[in-house]
Design brief:
heterodimer; A: 292 residues; MetI-like fold; B: 334 residues
């Protein structure tokens, strides 16, 4: 998803470092910082509002104060009581989906990047087209398949369904990265008598560590955030991801916004963590470029 | 991705060059030559290579190929919940399509889909491009601000829907409280409850969600434009709008194409946001082809009609997908 774009962005930044291409001198940049902060404040106001509401004392729907002066964690207590098991379900599905997607995607990406296989172009085209297929089409058909196979209301069923987002994405990210690995190293392993499997496991995978982490993070985020499959492929409260839990919360009759927003905050935690981690990767890229 | 899903192909487009440059690993032919000239070894090599691909290919066929085929078949059948257990689904020819297209909701949903898509894309793209241009220049904290900008896009869509549902609440929502303080606004607006406002509200929320995606891809595109061109333009005395019109825009065009077409394809299938905000209501005011297809299948349990409608959506999406692939190819070649 953004992973590669982000890398591109990092490279771009590196290239521009130190030069002031459009006559922006040192010191004149501060008004831009102020403007930037204002833009961000507007864009992220809903995020602030979510946190603000989540920290308010619970109760019927009343106008929320602008700042949480009287901080209460009641919302979180209620959210954890109602949605705790749903959060665990989401976590299990997310992790399961990461393992499943990478197991399938990593070898396939390697093959697509390194082997000259006839039909590889077709497969790549298929992957691109698969991204255009509306989720409701897949859900519509999967419901029938799952009903006959007994996969409705099951965690494996949701892991498989959610991986429809993860597998193609991971293949695309990993293929781009594995294609850029220095060919000499792989050739050297080959000359030393390592077969495809050994080369892949003991050289390609370790070298692709960063790309694997990036793919894993995004695959997790996709499965964690899935709502459509949770909505269509489950019918009972036993297997209920937090996204569906939140949806049912806000659709309820006696809606209390404080626990609902606390649930929203908890459901957004992976996104926050990802942002912090990815930020580190971008920073590493910039430093490396500066040293060179 | 429905929302978050997306983006991979764009990254693909942006990064094509790197991957093409490094495709020099141990090739099948070289391997066969080194190991000997016996064709059986060559075949073993091929089989081993295919084994790397096989699991992913099987999965994609089962979870994309089969559903699409099944959906096409279901479009011609009368499928109810019972069908999945009894296996009985009578053939009905084109009845599903006739019913779906003939229903009063269809025209409304088609119009809403067009308005939703065009409105969302126009807003996301314009604001995204403005932000990309703004962040193109380095300034203190620009890196941090730029990454924070991504935040809304990484949230689960249903979280965004939940937040906005409360912000847009008619009686206690913060938006109406702000607007209520302004002199020219009278009654509190029913953003999600009035038939004339709901679609606008849903579009606004979708714009908010899509801005980061547009901004970050366009930002990447802007950075691929060589500085020398700007320096040359500066020497020639070109400034502001002329630089944008004569240098930035033409060179950004391939990326613009990709962003727009991807945006359209992903917006067409948006479901989470609308279901979370309005559920398609009030009175179908925010019903799109995608949400209506969901309601037919999983609300009325008429899977045949749901399939027929979603097949129509596939055709629309694939039309744009073809445009997209052509745009990508051009982007890579240019």
């Amino acid at each position: 998803m953004t992973a590669l774009t982000r890398t591109t962005a990092a490279t771009g930044r590196r290239r521009h470092r130190g030069s002031t291409p459009h006559g922006v001198g040192r010191g004149t940049g501060w008004w831009r910082t102020v403007t930037g902060v204002i833009i961000l404040a507007v864009m992220l106001f809903p995020v602030y509002w979510m946190i603000n509401v989540s920290l308010q004392r619970g109760g019927p729907a009343i106008a929320t104060p602008w700042v949480p002066t009287d901080i209460s964690l009641d919302g979180y207590a209620t959210a954890l009581r109602d949605q705790g098991s749903n959060l665990v379900t989401s976590l299990v599905i997310g992790l399961g989906s990461v393992v499943f997607s990478l197991l399938l995607a990593a070898p396939a990406a390697y093959a697509l990047a390194r082997f000259k296989i006839r039909g590889a172009e077709v497969l790549l085209l298929g992957i691109l087209i698969s991204q255009m297929i509306p989720g409701i089409v897949v859900a519509n058909a999967l419901f029938g398949f799952y009903a006959s196979l007994g996969l409705l209301d099951s965690i494996p069923g949701l892991i498989l369904a959610d991986s429809t987002g993860g597998v193609p994405l991971a293949i695309l990210i990993l293929r781009a990265f594995m294609g850029s690995l220095p060919g000499e190293i792989l050739e050297a392993a080959w000359v030393d008598g390592a077969g495809h499997i050994r080369t892949f496991v003991s050289i390609v995978l370790p070298m692709s560590r960063n790309a694997l982490i990036t793919s894993a993070l995004f695959v997790f985020l996709i499965s964690w955030g899935d709502f459509l499959f949770a909505l269509t492929l489950t019918t009972s409260p036993e297997v209920r991801p937090v996204t569906l839990g939140l949806f049912l919360y806000i659709g309820g009759d006696r809606l209390d916004w404080s626990p609902a927003m606390a649930t929203a905050v908890l459901a957004s935690l992976p996104a926050l963590v990802l942002l912090v981690l990815a930020q580190k990767y971008v920073a590493a890229g910039v430093t490396k470029g500066a040293v060179k | 991705m429905t929302r978050a899903q997306p983006a991979a192909p764009a990254a693909e487009a942006v990064d094509h060059r790197t991957s093409a440059a490094g495709a020099a690993g141990p090739s099948a032919r070289g391997a066969a030559a080194r190991r000997g000239r016996r064709p059986s070894l060559f075949r073993r090599e091929r089989v081993l290579q295919l084994c790397f691909l096989l699991p992913a290919v099987v999965y994609l066929l089962l979870f994309f190929g089969a559903p699409v085929v099944r959906n096409v078949v279901m479009g011609f059948q009368n499928v109810t919940t019972a069908s999945f257990y009894t296996g009985e689904a009578p053939w009905t020819g084109l009845d599903n399509y006739a019913d779906v297209i003939g229903s009063a909701v269809f025209d409304k949903a088609l119009l809403n889909t067009v308005l939703f898509t065009v409105g969302s894309i126009a807003g996301q793209f314009t604001i995204g491009l403005t932000l990309a241009l703004f962040f193109r220049r380095m300034f203190p904290l620009s890196g941090v601000l730029r990454s924070l900008l991504l935040l809304p896009w990484l949230f689960p869509l249903i979280v965004s829907s939940a937040i906005w549902r409360w912000i847009l609440d008619q009686d206690n929502g913060v938006l109406n409280r702000v607007l209520g303080g302004l002199p020219f606004v009278g009654d509190r607006l029913g953003w999600l409850t009035s038939t004339s406002l709901a679609l606008i509200a849903v579009i606004l929320v979708n714009i908010w969600i899509g801005i980061p995606f547009n901004a970050i891809i366009l930002y990447g595109g802007l950075h691929d434009i060589p500085d020398e061109l700007y320096e040359a333009a500066a020497i020639d005395g070109a400034t502001g709008w002329r630089v944008f019109r004569d240098i930035t825009w033409p060179l950004l065009r391939p990326v613009v194409n990709v962003v727009l077409v991807l945006g359209i394809v992903f917006t067409l299938k948006v479901l989470d946001i609308i279901l979370g905000l309005t559920g398609g209501g009030p009175a179908n005011a925010t019903q799109t082809i995608a949400t209506q297809s969901y309601h037919l299948s999983f609300g009325q349990f008429d899977f045949g009609q749901g399939a027929a409608l979603s097949n129509i959506l596939i055709v629309i999406s694939l039309t744009f997908a073809i445009v997209y692939l052509r745009a990508t190819r051009r982007a890579v070649h240019e």
